[in-house]
Amino acid sequence: MNNQQQKIQNPETQVPKTPQMNDRDFVNDILTTEKYMTDAYSNALNEASNQTMYQDLFSIFQETQDCQRNLYNLMFKNGWYSLEAADQQKIQQAYQQFSGYTSQLPIH
């Protein structure tokens, strides 16, 4: 693959470019908040000592994670979020590097 990474992106839905927040700005702001909340709930789950609290937090975590994923999908669908195509050679090298570690994993 050449030095320039291939972008994976849908056609961009145009939004007004003004000082006021537009739809892309609002969705991006909410997505950032949902990512932060997902991280915070994950930490809370790791430290929850009460099973009932853990179950309640886990339910909220799942809802937050689903919301984050839906917002990501909306941003990607509208061309407001792009990805870099993975270099197949790097993927193969990483696979070969770590394929010998299976005996160290708890489940194999």
UniProtKB/TrEMBL annotation:
Region (Disordered): 1-24
Domain of life per record: Bacteria
Keywords: Capsid protein, Virion
One Pfam assignment: Coat_F
Composition-biased stretches (Polar residues): 1-21
Name of the protein described by the UniProt record: Spore coat protein CotF
Lineage: Bacteria, Bacillati, Bacillota, Bacilli, Bacillales
